[in-house]
Amino acid sequence: MLTYHIITIGCQMNYADSERLASRLEQNGYKKTADKYGADFLVVNTCGVRQSAENRIYGLIPKIKKENLRSKIILTGCLAERKDVKRRLKDYVDIWLPIGKIQSVFRSINEAENEKIKYNYLEIKPNYESKFSAFLPIGNGCDNFCSYCVVPYARGRETYRSAKAILAEANDLVKKGYKEIILIAQNVNSYKSGKTDFADLLKAINSIKGDFWIRFLTSHPKDMSKKLIKTMADSDKVCKQIYLPVQAGDDKILKAMNRKYTVKHYEQLIKTIRQAMPEISVTTDLIVGFPGETKKQFNNSLNLFKQVKFDMAYISEYSARPGTAAFKLPDDVSRQEKKNRKSRLDKILRQTALINNKKYLGKTVRVLAENQSKAGEWFGKTATGKDIRFLAGQLDLKAGDFVNVKVAGVREFCLAGVLN
Hints:
The protein has helices at residues 12-27, 51-67, 83-89, 105-110, 151-155, 163-175, 198-206, 226-234, 251-256, 263-276, 295-308, 335-358, and strands at 3-8, 31-32, 41-46, 72-77, 95-97, 133-137, 139-140, 159-160, 180-184, 192-193, 196-197, 213-217, 241-243, 281-288, 312-317, 364-372, 377-382, 387-391, 402-410, 415-419. By secondary structure, the chain is α/β, with parallel strands linked by helices. Among the domains are: 3-120, Response regulator (Rossmann fold), CATH 3.40.50.2300; 364-419, CATH 2.40.50.140.
């Protein structure tokens, strides 16, 4: 029996795609192996959003090919159609597979010309990695064309699954005992299927009978409606956690990024969200060192962090991505300056995250148990997305169980507690 191994680099959407790709391979007789150097077929699911993610494959793929000459290497994901990547890896990659065509991977490998493709790849039933938490893709692609981002070019324009298909998958997950359903797309809150928008979809999934949580990511501030905020607040299964990338704290930089909102609009959104859901935790993304970003403009991002008081932020240094509008701009902020700016934002983030976490001290929170260390300590997550560690004592606990934990200690990005 031929074997396969999948290496996934990048975001949650890539992991969900890999689960569907694994299912497609196993439907046609391939067996998964943990040995990436010994697999007959090695699939590398790539991310091109950051240069650091791209750089990983340039060392990884040649090394694996050198160790296993008979292995066929398949490259999919964001970099599958980049001409410069193809030139650089032409001697190592056997099959270049655009992400939207992963349903045809079996035909590509075996040249089975008579195989008919009858469905979109998102309708492939996945091999979920977890037994209690599942990514549920609701769509693919992006129409926003942020000037720094490759996604619209790598994945194409926005396409969304029907509400019927999404609800069917969600119902199936609940029946199988899943405790966490994470709705994902490049821009979840622009979802539209007939007359159903994202708020309607959330409400429909929330109405499914069962004890489970609903999370979603990633949202775009320009599409964060009052209807969606109210639906979140009114839905008992929707976790009070929002991932709302701001990307910059200066209006001129936001305009250059083609983000289509202002800092004032973003701040008002956060205010509205917190008024509707005081307990909510807020995560964001921000890029430092975008072309032309002055020290004054960066200071506006610092002020935004102080004002909003994020629970978590993914701060990245700008890296020019081929094919994007910003690629034509001079990358005029030095690498060291980018590092300094990132460090200054990180310092504020740690301060605000710790202040936010201190509000949990002495409170009992519901936790989804995720895994246990060899020393016996359990790790899990709260409904607000806070990582928490705790001891289960004599309780016969397993991954995927909900438990109540009293918070006894806090750090910037983690809580600690005891079973209550």
